[in-house]
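Researcher: Predict the fold of non-specific serine/threonine protein kinase.
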Amino acid sequence: MATDINLVSQSGRMSQTFKPFLLPLLGGFALMLLLVHARDDQPEKYRIMENEQTDLAKSVNPKYQMVSELVPINLGRWFTLNLFIHKLTHLIYNPCLPCVSGFISIDCGLAGNSSYTENTTGINYISDETFIDTGERKSVLQEYGYRYQEPYTSLRSFPEGNRNCYEINVTDGYKYLIRSSFVYGNYDGQNKVPEFDLHLGANLWSSVKLESASTITHKELIHVPGRNYIHVCLVNTGSGVPFISALEIRPLLNGSYVTEGESLALDMRFDTGQNANLTSYRFPYDAFDRIWNGYYDNDWTQLITTSTIDNSNNFRPPEIVLSTAATPKNKNGSLEILWLPSDNVTEYYVYMHFSEVEKLPGNQSRQMYINRDGELFRKSLVLEYLSTWTIYSTKAQSSGGQYNFSIFKFENSTLPPILNAIEFYMVKEFLESETNQADVDAIKEIKSTYKIKKNWQGDPCVPHAYLWEGLNCSYRENESPRIISLDLSSSGLTGEIATSISNLEMIHTLDLSNNNLIGPIPDFVSQLPNLNVLNLEKNKLTGSVPIRLIDRNKSGVVAEAKDTIGTSVESTKRQFTYSEIIKITNNFKRILGKGGFGNVYHGYIDDTQLAIKMLSPSSVDLLLRVHHKNLTSLVGYCNDKTGVGLVYEYMSSGNLREHLFSGSSSNILTWKDRLQIAIDAAQGLEYLHYGCKPPIIHRDVKLTNILLNENFQAKLSDFGLSRTFPSNDDTHVSTVVAGTPGYLDPELNEKSDVYSFGVVLLEIISCRPVYSSREHERIHISRWVRSMLAEGDIYGIVDPRLERHFNTNAVWKVVEIAMACVSPNAIKRPTMSQVVVELKESLATEIAGTRQSHETKLTNSIEIRSDSSISMLNPSVR
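Model: Structure tokens for non-specific serine/threonine protein kinase follow.
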């Protein structure tokens, strides 16, 4: 099998600073050890007296871990002592100059304006408070804290919000190592290790699953940012409160870790030359602060050198790692590396680092070749003494469920193969496009100007499940999402209208109503090319309205500014005559739907499709002030002696009932799509109940009144039955009960809509009609579901066409929400705000559930962690 392989050798030498005054001390110490242990003939052993997690403390300490107890060794077997002296020598050398230019080292949870220099690395750590404005500062319990370096003793937890994000400035186009670290340390006293997701920007980076309260877990990524900042986000998946201990950003050489555009997530990085798993190395030994964990295999032995190694290729493997090499104990044997990926990895990159540590006489040779899965990977490799060679593939390799490499010697080679270090990286393709940069800059400036306290974290538009509150975005294939709607009504805004709004070039709807804005309406508002709806009412604006805005208002742009300025723009929607309505609908030719209070007709204005509903004047008055992304937008109205009607935007994908009960097997809505549609509809109802003054009851919530646009965004329609209700505690409405049988609540108040929505949820889940017949008895869907729940049969409730392609926990949660909504006792029903929160949590659970991977084990092999946890991080190597 042909494989693209590259080999990188050294190109220069890194300077070193030697401290010669320490040589006598080193020599005397070595001689003392030899004299002390010469008396005993027992085999050589080093033993470390450990508690349950001493390995963790060792693994993050870049300095050599001194053994706490030495048992006597045989003077004739002093090889390991020689290694000890060699490693101590490296402490006297400065292996790489402490140039930490570009290092960003964040101690998450450290007090604001604080910083310190970490003792073992010499790296300066700073507080995270300038990188994030949410979360709570915490510390691991004292019983855990003594085990760790200082960055791992504090943390930031995020009990509020589904997604919380750090924003860190970087240089776009440059390659970085990004490392997130996690130590639970029972900081909350719950002794319950959480699980959550880690995102880079809009994309899933990894799921964080900790082995225990004391385990240190690193998630490491090699990534080239496309922008001058990155977002590192902690996402709540319903399995505990997310947290983070440290964030570290390290610039790399762009010539290293070259891929075909993918990012690389570290799976394992090993110093294979250690003859016992004693220590790990990082900065200052590694110029890029990579963490190298020791690995020891019983079938391997060790070669070492105390000479200086030239490690200056693009990868810069640490000299202290290169100074030891693994070689098979059997001189005719091979080095076998058989290892299971920690996730269901389909593609990976491997990097093998070699350095000849023995000066070979003329009659000796070491020539090697490498196989992968039994096929040739590198046909020939001959090393130069004390030079560094890195072998890697230039294209991603298919894992086939395991990594299997063999390093052989050639028949005419007198010496067996060696390996100094190895790295495996999983391919991470971040396919979700980030929001248009100009829109991001504009909305961030708006957030800063008005000091908005909403949970605006990470990317504004993606993932869609974490769309910023008050925003709506457009999503087109191969294009960055654009912000098309901004609702900051009732947000406590003060000052003038922010000029940064002018940079939202694609915005269609802008709602700044019910705030304390002052000053004139700026002219730039009238220059926004796509603005269709502008709501400025209930502010303290003064001065005159820009002429261009008045002209555009005459053409149909909504400019609600009543009672706010001296020269107000009166109406909010375009008014049509009845004769115009006849022309628009082609004499009411095509009926889109029939409601209890009028028909809905299809029509056109120029090339724009519309939906026109004929109904009562009272409904027109009610709906002229309703604006929300999940309610069908009102384009205009007709109100003359001949007839009264509403002109709506056209929803090209029809209503939800058509998609649930169409019978087509090729267009079945996925569970995730159903959840998102339910959330959209719930948000529309929430706005009617709590965003309108006075509040509005829809009174006819059902599948046919949930319409879908071309992007399958759901919007509530058909307000022919809507009525206002008082906003005090008495929410009863004295009016004629109207609506659709099966969806109606015996009482009429805002909880009536909740009841109807619960019925809709049950239909979405089961794809069953509201009423079914059994033995001449009509069974309501809520009664049927209740009987299935009594049997514990959740799968019997869910639409069988989904073929169980859903997260069971998410389904259970939605069923519970629906049954709470249809409670016979209205007081026990949740509010629509509570329903929205619960549904969003269910969607987060569903998204997390589809990404979970299952670990597997290889028979008779050493277990591997599902992340880069430090303790017991060993591959299966034979």
